[in-house]
């Protein structure tokens, strides 16, 4: 029988480093040749460098901060309306094709790695497979119908009124700076969270409208290019205890607190819906109660999935609506002619600013106001990033 000493003196296997490097080099050479000459999209015009490696896109998005979309625009000017932008994708510069690619009747799906960008892979927004996305989105559609929004308008108006009160008492007649980004972020967060989840943090009452949570949402949005290319970063952070991530990134603490609060709210609503208790802890129906009443299968109504949906609604709604309002505010105030014309229309429609405000349907009938709303929606955006689609049925 061999002794332990004899085994410990056995020679370790040697790794031929030069052979390993050569093999890897041959692999890369073969991969590049395939991508340049044999790929199904090898005939599509575009830069050779971006055809052989996706790291070129990563450089412009991560290191240069989301600038890849501007490189695509340059390539279209050079190569034409259809361009190969990386080893796997082609890009269209054709306005008429937009309605084809993003039509509600299409059966196109998103690419798989997009589901991990926000850390909510089971939320409707991040669902990549078309049929599953349609089922999940369909369960929430009644909650976001026009009729439901109109019923909720008085609460939204009360939040706007609170903003006006602060402007009158804290800013009017002073040289105090009013930051639209902070004010609109607090307003949209209060409205969205109360409407969707029956939760309100009264961020509009924070000094100068600066709420740590809205700041965290903005920082998360700014990190999207990084986690879009390296989704494992967010997966790693989510696997760590909240206390550890709080030390590594203190800005995430308000997000963790919100996650805890929304989890507790979901548990309460699930318990009430299961027991049929008519005495609710919430004063109006939430998106969770709507989903729990839907025909979604049981596995689609788990705590984790409902929480992902809630985080997606908040994350996707706050910054996008805030940006639209900021864009409108700046466009109106910086252009005296627009400001004058809009004010004249509003004064004619509402001579007494302290009277009961017009309803949403009445406001929609004001042509210049309606035009401004449409234009600010056209000019504003959430995050400038591509929305890739795959056709699983045909080339």
TrEMBL record:
UniProt keyword Nucleus present: no
Pfam annotation, one family: p450
SUPFAM superfamilies: Cytochrome P450 (SSF48264)
The entry's keywords: Iron, Membrane, Metal-binding, Monooxygenase, Oxidoreductase, Transmembrane, Transmembrane helix
Membrane-spanning residues: 15-38
Keyword Membrane listed: yes
Cofactor(s), names only, from the UniProt record: heme
Gene3D superfamilies attached to this UniProt entry: Cytochrome P450 (1.10.630.10)
Family in the record: Belongs to the cytochrome P450 family.
Protein name stated in the entry: Cytochrome P450
């Amino acid at each position: 029988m061999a002794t332990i000493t004899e085994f410990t003196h056995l020679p370790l296997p040697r790794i031929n480093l030069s052979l390993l490097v050569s093999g890897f080099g041959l692999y890369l050479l073969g991969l590049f040749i395939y991508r340049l000459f044999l790929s199904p999209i090898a005939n599509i015009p575009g830069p050779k460098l971006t055809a052989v490696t996706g790291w070129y896109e990563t450089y412009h998005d991560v290191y240069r901060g989301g600038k890849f979309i501007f490189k695509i625009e340059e390539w279209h000017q050079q190569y034409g309306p259809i361009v190969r932008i990386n080893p796997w994708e082609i890009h269209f510069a054709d306005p008429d094709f937009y309605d084809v690619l993003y039509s509600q009747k299409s059966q196109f799906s998103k690419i798989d790695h997009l589901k991990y960008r926000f850390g909510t892979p089971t939320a409707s927004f991040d669902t990549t497979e078309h049929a599953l996305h349609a089922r999940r989105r369909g369960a929430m559609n009644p909650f976001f119908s026009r009729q439901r929004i109109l019923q909720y308008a008085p609460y939204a108006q009360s939040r706007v009124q609170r903003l006006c009160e602060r402007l009158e008492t804290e800013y009017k007649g002073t040289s105090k700076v009013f930051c639209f980004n902070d004010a609109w972020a607090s307003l949209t967060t209060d409205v969205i969270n109360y409407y969707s989840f029956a939760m309100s943090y009264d961020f509009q009452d924070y000094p100068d409208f600066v709420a740590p949570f809205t700041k965290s949402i903005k920082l998360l949005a700014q990190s999207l290019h990084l986690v879009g290319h390296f989704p494992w970063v967010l997966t790693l952070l989510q696997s760590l205890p909240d206390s550890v991530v709080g030390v590594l990134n203190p800005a995430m603490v308000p997000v963790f607190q919100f996650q805890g609060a929304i989890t507790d709210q979901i548990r309460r609503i699930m318990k009430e819906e299961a027991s049929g208790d008519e005495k609710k802890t919430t004063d109006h129906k939430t998106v969770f109660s709507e989903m729990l009443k839907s025909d979604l299968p049981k596995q689609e109504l788990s705590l984790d999935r409902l929480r992902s949906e809630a985080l997606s609604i908040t994350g996707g709604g706050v910054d996008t609506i805030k940006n639209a309002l900021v864009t409108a505010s700046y466009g109106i105030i910086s252009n005296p002619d627009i400001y004058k014309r809009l004010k004249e229309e509003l004064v004619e429609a509402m001579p007494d600013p302290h009277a009961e405000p017009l309803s949403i349907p009445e406001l929609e009938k004001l042509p210049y106001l309606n035009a401004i709303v449409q234009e600010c929606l056209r000019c504003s955006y959430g995050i400038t990033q591509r929305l890739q689609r795959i056709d699983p049925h045909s080339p």
